[in-house]
Amino acid sequence: MTTTVNGKADLLALTGRDLGHTAWREITQDRIDTFADATDDHQWIHVDPGRAASGPFGATIAHGYLTLALIIPLFGELLAIEGVRMSVNYGLEKVRFPNPVRVGDKIRLAGRVVSTEEVAGDGVALVVDFTVEIDGSDKPACVARAVYRHYT
């Protein structure tokens, strides 16, 4: 279920809020190949299913940065922000990839708002802890702390 907030006061009130989980999303070879083309990272563990089948992961795996990039659209399933004129990705404080995402795996995003604070320019900084979970695995694919700025 998506949490919807409207404006600065609602954003500031999010501190400590568990945003829940998104729906599961399957990672396909087509998505991996498209990301490889976009980033010029065609390492065989990502794009050669035949070779990868006998490799260390038993299949091709998603790029770590593909997993990280999917946080953006998945986050939209967790939080809808209205009443702002602009939102920007301000950066990341920490990112780790403890478990590879194999082709065919399903992932979902869990999020929790760590902190909020007012920033110059009539804005709010929003710090969110994310966990990208893999269906059937106790070990996450990615853990990240992201910082966003929203200006009203």
Helix content: 25-40%
| SS strand fraction | 35-45%
Largest sheet: 6 strands, antiparallel
Global outline: elongated
Number of helices: 6
Name the CATH architecture: Roll
| CATH fold annotation | Thiol Ester Dehydrase, Chain A
- pLDDT averaged over residues: 97
Q: Count of DSSP E strands?
A: 8
How far is the N terminus from the C terminus?
Answer: 24 Å
The low-confidence parts are: none
The tally of structural domains comes to 1
User: Would you tell me the structural class of the helices and strands?
Assistant: alpha+beta
H and E order: EHEEHHHHHEEEEE
This entry's quaternary arrangement is single chain
- Rg, please? 17 Å
Query: At the fourth CATH level, what is the homologous superfamily?
Result: Hotdog Thioesterase
CATH class: Alpha Beta
At a glance:
Helices cover 26% and strands 40% of the residues.
Any overview of this molecule?
- This protein is of the alpha+beta class.
- It has helices spanning 7-12, 29-39, 44-47, 49-53, 64-69, 71-78, and strands at residues 3-6, 18-21, 25-26, 79-82, 86-96, 106-119, 123-134, 142-151.
- The chain has a single domain (3-151), classed as Hotdog Thioesterase (Thiol Ester Dehydrase, Chain A), CATH 3.10.129.10.
- It contains six helices and eight strands.
- Strands 2, 3, 5, 6, 7 and 8 form a six-stranded antiparallel sheet that branches. The protein has a two-stranded parallel ribbon with strand order 1-4.
- It is elongated.
